[in-house]
Amino acid sequence: MVARVETAVLPADGREQQQAKRSPFSILVIALVGVIVFLTLYPLGIIVAGAVLPGGRFDATIWAETLMAPGLFQAVSNTAIIAAVNTAVSVPLGVFFAWLIERTDARIGGMSRLLPVIPLMLPPVALTIGWLFLADPRAGYLVAPLVDALHAVGIPVQPSTLAIQSWGGLIFLYVLYSVPHVYVIAAAAFSSLDPSLEEAARVCGSNRFKCFFKVSMPAIRYAIGSSALLCIISSIALYSIPALLGTAARIDVLSVYIYRLLNYSYPPQTAQAVVLGLITILVIGSVWLLQRKIASRTGHAQMGGMGVRLNPLALGPWKWPARIAVLAYVVMTSILPLLALLVVALQPFWSREINLSLLSLKNFLDFWERGASREAIYNSALLAIASATAVVLTGGLLAIFAKQTGGLWEKTVGVITKVPSAVPNIVFAVGVLVAFGFSPFHLSGTWLIIFLAYIVVFLPSASIAAESSVQQVGNQLVDAARVFGAGPGRTFRTVQLPLILPGLAAGWALVFAIVVGELNVAAILAGPRNPVIGYLILALFDNGTYSQLAALATIIGVIAAITVSATLLLARPKFSN
Question: How many CB atoms are located within 10 Å of the residue 320 CB?
C-alpha cells in the first residue's frame, strides 16, 4: 500500500461520470437518495407548512417573535461557547488517543482499542446521572473525600466548587461524550493509513511528537475535519446532558430551549421550534461546506495499492506515561461513573453512605421480572442493530457514489445527508408522528415508526464516518478495478468496501451505542405499545427512582459493551497488529 498526498480528490472524467450515473449501482443509489429525501423532507415539509406557512402564506411575525424572544440570545451564546470549547478539547484529545493506540507501542494488547470508547457504552443520560452520583455537592461519592483531602493540605474548598452542576461540569461531560466519537473516526483513519510517511519522517530525524504533529495529523486531516464537524453537531443537538445539569446550573442551551417550546408552552410553539431548526440547518450546512473546502485545499494521505504491515512507533521512555494517560482517562471518565451506577443500583435508594448489609440484586430482579422492561430492552437492541446497519450501509453507498460522480452530485448528496443533523431530534420526531403516525400510514405505536425516524436522525453521524473512510481510499485502487473491467457495484463490493470497513464499523458502533439508549425520539414516538429503553429512562427519571434507573443503565452498559467491543475488534484491518 503506497501512501499518496493529494491536494484534492480528482473526480472521474466526463465520460466515466456519465457511465457511472447509468450503471445499476448508480441507479440503486439514486433510488436510495430518493427514499432518504422523502423520509427527511416529507415530515419536515408537513410541520414547516403548518407552522411557518399557516394558511399557505409566509408569516414574518413568527420569525420576529422567535428571534426576539427573551432568553434565546443567551441560549445561543451558551451553545456556541460549549460547541467551541468542546470541539477544541475533544478533537485533539481523541486524535491523540487514536494515534497512541493505532500508531505507537503504547497499546496494551487488543483491549487498547476499546479503552477510549468505553464512554460510548452508556447512553448520555445514564452517563450524566452516573456523574451526578459522583459529584453532586450534597450526596456525591467523590465530593466529600476530595473536600477533606484538600482541606488537609491547606486548600479551603467548598463542596459547591466541585459540583458537577456548573460550567466546568457541563463542558467536562460534553468532552466525555465527544472524545469517543472523535476517537472511532480518527482510529479508523490511522488504522487504514500506510505508515511509510511516518517511517520516512523518522528516517529524516523527526522525533516522536514532531512526527505526530507534522506527519500523522496532516495525513488524516479529512478525518479530523469530520470529527470536528461531528463535535459541533452533537454540541448543538445534545439534550440529555444540558437538561439534567445545565438546568440546575442555570445554563440554558439551544436544545433545551427548543424542548421547552414544545413541551412547556401551551399551546406548543412548534412554529418557533421549526424556525430555529431551519436557522440551524443553515449554520451546520455552512460549517460542513467550510470543512469540505479546507480539506480539499490542504490534502490528506490516501491508501494506494500495495499492502504493508504497521511498524509501531517506539515511544521509548514515553510509552508508560502514555499508557497511564489512557488508563487515567478511562478511570476518571468511565469506570468511576459506571461504579457509581452499579453501587446505586445495588442499594434500595441513593445514599452517600454505603451500607453493605443493604446491597442486593433486588432492583435488577424486579426490573427483569416486568414484561414491559424485557420488551423495551429487546426492542431497543433490535432497533439499534437494524438502525445502525441501515444508516451505515446507506452512508457508505452514498459516500462512494458522491466520490465517483463528483461535482454537483457530490455536494447534493453531502447536503442531503447532513440536513437531519440541523433539525432538533424532538422537532423531527413530531414531524414523523404527524406524517406517518396517522392516515394513510397508521404507524403510530409501532416499532417501524421509530425505525424510520432513527434512519434519518442518525444518518449524518454514519455518513460523516463513511465519508472520512472513503476519502482515505486513493484513486489508484478504483482505477485499477476499472482497468480490469469491474463496474461501480463490483468495485464497491470487492475493493472499496473492505478498505472502508474499519470506518463503517466505527460508525456502526457509534450509532448502536447512541440508539440503544436514545431519549429524544423515544419521548415522542415510544409508548406502552412500543416501549424502548429511552421510554423507560424517562419514566424512571420523572418518578425519581434512581436505583432502578441505575440498574437499567448497568444493563444497557453490558449490552453495549459486548456489542461495540465485538464490532471494533472483528472489523479491524487484517494487516494491523
Answer: 11
Residue 85 has pLDDT above 90, yes or no: yes
Range of the domain at 128: 4-300+322-570
Comparing C-alpha atoms, which of 220, 175, 215 is closest to residue 193? 220
Backbone angles phi and psi of 300, in degrees to 5: -160, 155
Asked whether residue 307 is assigned to any structural domain, the reply reads no
Q: Which amino acid is at 517?
A: G
What pLDDT digit, counting tens, does each position of 425-456 carry? 777 887 888 889 888 888 888 889 999 999 98
Q: With contact defined as beta carbons under 8 Å apart, do 67 and 60 qualify?
A: no
Q: What is the 3-state secondary structure (H, E, C) of 226-286?
A: HHHHHHHHHHHHCCHHHHHHHCCCCCCCHHHHHHHHHHCCCCCCHHHHHHHHHHHHHHHHH
Question: Residue 52 contacts by C-beta under 8 Å, 6 or more apart in sequence?
Answer: 58, 59, 62, 271, 274, 275, 278
Structure confidence at residue 144 as a pLDDT band (50, 70, 90): confident
* Spatial contact of 536 and 551, defined as CB atoms under 8 Å apart: no
Number of domains in the chain: 1
Residues 258-286: pLDDT tens digits?
Answer: 878 877 777 777 778 778 877 777 787 77
Q: 137: burial class by Cβ within 10 Å (0-12, 13-18, 19+)? A: middle
pTM of the model: 0.74
Torsion sign across C-alpha atoms 209, 210, 211, 217 = positive
In a domain, 267, yes or no: yes
Residues contacting 376, CB < 8 A, separation 6+: 531, 532, 533, 535, 536
What is the pLDDT confidence band of residue 373, given thresholds at 50, 70 and 90? confident
pLDDT in tens, 441-500: 888 888 899 999 999 888 887 777 777 677 666 667 777 777 777 776 677 777 777 777
In Å, what is the CA distance from 422 to each residue of 250, 260, 307, 417, 513? 25, 18, 40, 10, 21
**Within a domain: residue 363?**
yes
Domain membership of residue 103 (yes or no) is yes
Q: Which residue, chain included where needed, has cell 468505553?
A: 118
In the block, residue with C-alpha cell 454514519: 462
Three-state secondary structure call for residue 89: helix
For all residues of the chain together, what is the average pLDDT?
77
Residue 381 sits in a domain whose CATH number is 1.10.3720.10
